Amino acid sequence: MKKLFALAAIAAAAVAAHAQDFPGGKPVTIVVPFAAGGPTDRVARDLAEALRKPLGGASVIIDNVPGAGSSIGAAKVARATPDGYTLLLNHIAMATVPSLVRNVPFKVETDFEYLGIVNDVPMTLISKPGIPASNYKELSGWIAANKGKINIGNAGVGSASHLCGLLYQSATKTEMTPVPYKGTAPAITDLIGGQIDLLCDQTTNTTPHIQAGKVKAFAVTTSKRLALPTLKDLPTLDEAGLKNFQVTIWHGLYAPKGTPAPVLKKLNDAVKVALKDPDFIHREELLGAVVATDGRIEPAGHKKFVIDEIAKWTPVIKAAGVYAD
């Protein structure tokens, strides 16, 4: 028995020493469960840069592990050694993967430690140039008059644009033909060319085309109008008539379950410092993203938010009967 107590004391001392030393000059890896160059990858690289200083100058590197609606990369982090050196940056997929992917190899609620929401990326409802509508009311009338004939593009099953499209159809009680693409770029190309009718996608992808007048923009999906100069005149869907419709593509940071509490505190403290970094805020604004400042930057607030989002998206996805694998 004394030997067991001694071993436990040694183990506890080792954990405490590791936590005190963390990150100790070793690199911290942020796994991004999507391909390099996409919106989530860009957010991760911005965050990595902002985290270096509050982590004592440690290197923060990005590891892109795409596939299966983000579940491959997330599973890699769930299985990683819980020492703080392997983290996950994921978006709304953390709330939708349980419904979108069969046989998910982890449990979102129990296999991760929550380190804080990083940002929110608003969505915009846009259309091809030739639609005979100049505001959301006229767009709604056009949709009603063309029941069963309208298609709505997306960047693939489980993508932000796919999820927004599903929720929009559910909220408006309309059925549209989904047209999936292998990414946002080809979807927007066909929207500009008139091959598809509608798209609901992130400001990071749509703002340049709205600015150039290549597509028609009708509303944003936030609770308030955006302060961004290029989109400040766009109404919210709520004020345009579709009440309580809000969708943002948020990003959060996670560690494997069992990461020592002192290490988690250091990581969360570093995140909160990074979110106040003027350079990080500016880079996120250029992406059309809003840096988080509310209670979701705390681990408990982050976890509650994700659980609420799972409850929000599960019935919408199950009703649509779609899967990402």
UniProtKB/TrEMBL annotation:
Family matches, as SUPFAM superfamilies: Periplasmic binding protein-like II (SSF53850)
Keyword Signal: yes
Any one Pfam family match given in the protein's UniProt record, by short name: TctC
Keyword Signal recorded: yes
Origin superkingdom: Bacteria
Gene3D superfamilies: Bordetella uptake gene, domain 1, Periplasmic binding protein-like II
Signal peptide per UniProt: 1-19
Keyword tags: Signal
Family: Belongs to the UPF0065 (bug) family.
Protein name stated in the entry: Tripartite tricarboxylate transporter substrate binding protein BugD
Organism: Variovorax gossypii
